[in-house]
Amino acid sequence: MREFEVEAPAPHRWGESLVAVEQGEPVHLDVRLESVHEGILVTGEADTLYRGVCGRCLTDIVQPVEVEFQELFGYPGEEATDFELQNDFVDTETLVRDAIVLSLPFQPVCQPDCPGLDPITGERLTAEAVHEPREPVDPRWAALKTFTNDDVADRRGAETTEES
């Protein structure tokens, strides 16, 4: 058994949604390699930072991500495993990348109770914000402000009278 601590930059951007580990971001690995009958058992932990935007308010976020992984790297020509030793080397890039990408949040938030954006103005909401009626962003909807519930009642009354 051998144990290693390694810090290496992410060789590519890992992730495709709102957040990702950017290329060059340092990835810290604590890895243990154990020789077993079928091959080399790799067990470890990886930690790094992911960057992106909040899924509710679109502010920039940077959060840590920590994952654990374990995989058997089989000897060439032995039983089929997902990973194989290549020239007596264990390449953990795919293993670490998969573990990190699968642990990234699908809908990341800057804080658990992020209120998001105001649907009318598009401004970021805060917990202390007082919601005052504001003009609609799109002036094409302004004509609807003159339409009231009384207008609906008048039209229904007129339709009823016509049917009689």
Walk me through the structure.
Strands 1, 2, 3, 4, 5 and 6 form a 6-stranded mixed sheet that branches. The N and C termini lie far apart (93 Å). The chain has 164 residues and is of the alpha+beta class. It has helices at residues 93-103, 149-163; strands at 2-9, 19-20, 26-36, 39-53, 60-74, 83-84. Strand 3 (26-36) and strand 4 form a beta hairpin. The chain is elongated, with a radius of gyration of 28 Å. The protein has a domain at 2-103. The protein has 2 helices and 6 strands. The longest helix is centred in the last third of the chain and has 15 residues, at 149-163.
Quick summary of this structure?
This protein has helices spanning 93-103, 149-163; strands spanning 2-9, 19-20, 26-36, 39-53, 60-74, 83-84. With 164 residues, the protein is of the alpha+beta class.
